[in-house]
Amino acid sequence: MLSVKPLFEEHPGRTYKPDELTQGEFVDSLDHQKALLIRREDNPLSVEEFADLLVGFNFEGYPYVGGAAPRTIIPVSAGKDIIFTANESPPQEPIPFHHELAQTPNPPEYIFFYCDTPPEEGGETPIIDSTLVYRFAKENHPEFIEKLFKVGARYIRTLPPEDDPLSPIGRSYKNTWHVQTPQELEAKLSKIDGCSWEWKDDGSVRITSEPVPAIRLVKEHYQNQVFQYTFANSVVAAFLGWQDSRNNRLEALRFGDMEKMPEAVLESIANFMHNHRVLHKWQKGDIMALNNRLVMHSRNPFTGPRRVFASIWGSPRINDSIYQAGKIPSKYYKPLVPEDPLVFGFWKVPKDITTDACYNAIKAGYRRLDCACDYGNEKEVGEGIARALKDGLCTREELFITSKLWNTYHKREHVPMALDRTLGDLQLEYLDEYLIHFPITMEFVPFDAKYPPEWHNLQGKMVVVDHDIMETWGAMEELVKLGKCKEIGVCNFSTQLLRHLLSNCTIRPTVLQVELHPENSQKRLVRFAREQGMRVTGFSVFGATSYVELGGATQDESLLNNETIVNIAKSKEKTPAQILIRWACQRGTNPLNKSSKAERMVENREVFDFYLTRTEMELIDGLNKNRRYNDPGDFCEGAFGTFCPIYE
């Protein structure tokens, strides 16, 4: 049995038979936990078994091109050139933290280390969460991070014609670039825009790289909403470690515009990395698996005959025929566009501040806007969108705007009328997404008599009428064909209603929007919706908070005051709201939140510079008690005298 444990937290992990550790399970684990230790306790894995395990994951191969360290290929029967020695620099030399090949435009996604012979002393492979480094640098050196964002980094290194085993960066230009002659090297380098080189008298070559991105936002990967900024570069490694007879480490770095990087800032970041590293003492047969986009690694000096091998790989080759629980099937899957899961909503936003709230939300970075006829403020939202477009904050194509069909407009002839009214108020030619707001059909209220009609007719009564929801859906499908909305979906639907819809529709729903928070996580509904091809948007992510003023909850029930949430927030130095939004993102849903304050809008978006560990996610998941706050079966009878349940 294989034991698989996370390295960044105290968690028991899981045990697998070798054939049970599938590609999907492994990729998900590395997206969520970043670094794993794989070990067979009773009988250490051999290097051949290590290679077999990696090949079984079915990742794209990745040639080792561009690295500084000398390597020796380790022959294995599973494949050619897939296992090689880890950095062969002298044992007394520490290797600084880096993402593998971060100085190249497209670094590998995964790096694996295997311990064939543990050292007598030292020789650990320290690791650090790259998002943690990014956050430290952003908070302590904001101008440095801002410049890296804008212009990237350049790396300057002199490479010898033959490998130099006495240097930690002694890999020759021949092995680094897989060439045999200077002419072949120049042919390769000349194809890289912004790269330059200079030949030295001793046959070595000084190469200045093109500007390379140094801060990356890891977005959606294999349908996992990672969404974390990383310090994705080798600047600290170059600053500390690119020193030998040919290279001066203090001259190894430039910003993309060729300005020299400040040494004091680099020293500060390096000290932080050293003080927050995670160490693992090698045992024979150990495998360390790292998500190279999220984790940096290094090497401590050692004594004794340390033999640690490495292997680097690219993206997973997805087998569409294999069922993956909770994943959208490939035939329905569409990339997340805009590439941002955060949604700004306008429920209960007063009309007199809605225009400014909309404008400020777009200015803060929100590109997903959630509106509805029933919110009574679409005209003001439209004014905010128009002002943002006029001021050049974004383009219409960069926005993803959702609205909803109200309960009184479910008849076929009323559906296009309702959308036309919404489009007019929003000053738009089309919606990105149009949703059925509730699976409740109510008596029609004329547009010119009362708009929005709310929950009651002109006589002040809520009147529910018999109606086939498929008639409504058919009218929604016609709107897609006319180009008035790009996608259609539903809100507040149960699993059984979704089954009915999916069994009879021509155009499938692309989204389900429901109440989702730790006290009402609805795991089965979320999983079912995703496996049927729908993304899931969650409203009321803060739980009771939005319902206190409506009399549907007390302030004590607010998840913002929940002890578990507050404790995690303190440990992360984040707000409870940020913890709840992050939780929603990590479980693969698009969280909907709102605020009337511009500074709070920005604050609620600052959830991409940390992550929740598996233990923390499990603690938050444990708060579930199926508690709904937005339930027509409760509020309709008390407010309107009509019993109207939609949930059991």
Describe this structure in words.
The chain contains 19 helices and 27 strands. With 648 residues, it is α/β, with parallel strands linked by helices. The strands form six sheets. Strands 1, 2, 3, 4, 5, 7, 16 and 19 form an eight-stranded antiparallel beta sheet that branches. It has an eight-stranded parallel barrel with strand order 20-21-22-23-24-25-26-27, surrounded by four helices. Helix 7 crosses helix 8 and helix 10 crosses helix 11.
Features of this protein?
single chain, 648 residues, alpha/beta, eight-stranded antiparallel beta sheet, eight-stranded parallel barrel, 19 helices, 20% strand, elongated
Helix content range: 25-40%
In percent, how much strand structure appears in the residues?
15-25%
The rounded distance between the terminal residues' Cα atoms is 43 Å
Low-confidence stretches: none
Average per-residue pLDDT, rounded, comes to 94
Number of strands: 27
Shape by Cα distribution: elongated
In angstroms, what is the radius of gyration? 28 Å
Q: Helix segment count?
A: 19
Major pleated sheet: 8 strands, antiparallel
Category from helices, strands and their pairing: alpha/beta
